[in-house]
């Protein structure tokens, strides 16, 4: 292969879908990669799962406030899409605080939660299958063409790893882990911020191992910069508490990078420097 051809291949932009539990998770967790790392070289579409939300740091999250808060958070996501360079759409599942009405974070932050009885896991798995639109799932007409809106399969799907055990993140992580090997699209699990900042490297490794024993990390950005964190803070004023900003300080102090875990040998070759 000649040098020019190599260059052309390197410049080919792939289509990456990033599943986001809530409005805010993708710039929080992959913002540096979107700005200056491996994700910045490709087209990124974000699909938000829990688009019905009443959670902000600014007002008490009564169920009645879900409508106005959801609109507010959609505006924030639109700003983030412009600043970080992605398009987004949202599904309409209710986030955990709205489902359970329990504001105590210990009720929804549990890395060892048993989701065996939660019907959302299979609902979300179906949704991911639709996003992958794989031949396994069968969405082609008799001519082998894709049916429906004409959307094409992505080249890669990224999902949260559930680090820190937020229930909504765990639902997506467990659903995706159950689909490994069945999707016609590679899947990677990204580090969940701000929660992961509070975990030791041992705790992170134990969590990833519980998800799937074959997962291996790949760095997808350089060290997270203060300017990237300032952009995230500017995009999501409704979410910023000291829990978030302290986590940003920890990430910067430890020179943390954006990380995605792939099943052994399954990371796409084109996702490299
Ligand atoms: Zn989240």
Sheet with the most strands, sense and barrel status = 7 strands, mixed
Mean pLDDT: 89
The top level CATH class name: Alpha Beta
CATH superfamily: LmbE-like
Order of helices and strands: HEHEHEHHEHEHEHHE
How would you sum up this structure, described in words?
The protein is 38% helix and 15% strand. The protein is of the alpha/beta class and 273 residues long. It has one domain: 3-Layer(aba) Sandwich (Rossmann fold). Helix 5 (119-132) crosses helix 6 (167-177). The longest helix has 19 residues, at 66-84. Mean pLDDT is 89; it is low at 134-145.
List the helices and strands and how they pair.
Blueprint: H1 3-11, E1 15-20, H2 25-36, E2 43-48, H3 66-84, E3 87-90, H4 96-100, H5 119-132, E4 156-160, H6 167-177, E5 187-190, H7 201-211, E6 215-223, H8 226-235, H9 242-253, E7 257-263
Parallel strand pairs: 1-2, 1-4, 2-3, 4-5
Antiparallel strand pairs: 5-7, 6-7
Helix pairs in contact: 5-6
């Amino acid at each position: 292969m000649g040098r020019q051809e190599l260059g052309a291949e390197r410049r080919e932009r792939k289509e990456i879908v990033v599943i986001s539990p809530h409005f805010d998770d993708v710039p929080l967790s992959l913002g540096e990669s979107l700005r200056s790392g491996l994700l910045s070289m490709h087209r990124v579409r974000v699909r938000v799962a829990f688009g019905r939300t009443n959670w902000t740091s600014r007002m008490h999250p009564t169920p009645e406030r879900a409508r106005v808060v959801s609109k507010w958070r959609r505006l924030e996501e639109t700003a983030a899409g412009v600043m970080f360079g992605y398009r987004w759409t949202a599904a309409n599942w209710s986030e955990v605080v709205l489902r359970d009405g329990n504001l105590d974070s210990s009720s929804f932050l549990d890395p060892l939660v048993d989701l065996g009885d939660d019907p959302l896991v299979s609902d979300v798995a179906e949704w991911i299958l639709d996003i992958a639109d794989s031949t396994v799932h069968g969405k082609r007409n008799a001519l082998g063409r894709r049916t429906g809106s004409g959307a094409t399969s992505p080249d890669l799907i990224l999902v949260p790893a559930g680090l820190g055990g937020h229930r909504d993140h765990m639902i997506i992580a467990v659903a995706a882990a159950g689909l490994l090997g069945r999707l016609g699209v590679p899947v990677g699990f990204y580090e969940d911020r701000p929660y992961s900042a509070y975990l030791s490297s041992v705790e992170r490794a134990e969590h990833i191992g519980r998800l799937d024993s074959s997962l291996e990390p790949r760095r997808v950005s350089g060290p997270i910069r203060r300017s990237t964190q300032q952009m995230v803070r500017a995009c999501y004023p409704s979410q910023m508490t000291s829990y978030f900003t302290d986590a940003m300080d920890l990430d910067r102090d430890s020179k943390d990078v954006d990380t995605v875990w792939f099943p052994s040998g399954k990371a796409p070759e084109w996702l490299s420097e």
